[in-house]
Amino acid sequence: AFYSINQIAKLLNKKYPYVNKRVSHLLKEGILRKSIMGASHMCSLNLDNDKCVVLLTLIEIEKRDRFLKRNAQLKNALELLRKDRSKRTIYCVLLHNKQIYFVLENPQHSIAVQGFNSSNMGVDELLQRMKVGDILKDHIIIFGFERYFEFVKEVEKELRLQSMI
Fold first, then answer.
1. What's 36's DSSP letter?
2. In this predicted model, what pLDDT tens digit does every residue of 10-62 receive, in sequence order?
3. Of all residues in the chain, what percent are helix, strand and coil, respectively (each to 5)?
4. How far is residue 113 CA from its own chain's centroid?
5. How many other C-beta atoms are found inside a 10 Å radius of the C-beta of residue 42?
6. Measuring CA to CA, which residue among 21, 19, 46 is closest to residue 32?
């Protein structure tokens, strides 16, 4: 998405000068990128920047850890899955709408976690879901943070076009 500094300040409920200073720093670091649209300068994440991906990953790790503290059963199941990865390639694992999605090289290898709704998908299906946008919102990345952001980067151009419309 694209946001002006004023929109960011309103979303964060912070004063414009403070947000302007922080955004300027993030632009200088390359974490954000700036596009000019009419008279406005619009900011968006720069997924080509490693620092941006690392910061997003840290945010996602915090979300995952908070969730796993409340769901010890899932935490234990994921530990077993990590040990069992030699049998299949797991790109990432997401929780979205109370459903666990396993993104697999071969989605025919089924994985299920007792007590949770789960489904398997291939990379192409994940990319399609990302283009629609539903799986980009209100998710928790449980495993495969870097791969998840690589997939987002693959559909980034289409997502940018959608946000401009």
1. E
2. 999 999 999 999 999 999 999 999 988 888 889 999 999 999 999 999 999 99
3. 55, 20, 20
4. 22
5. 18
6. 46
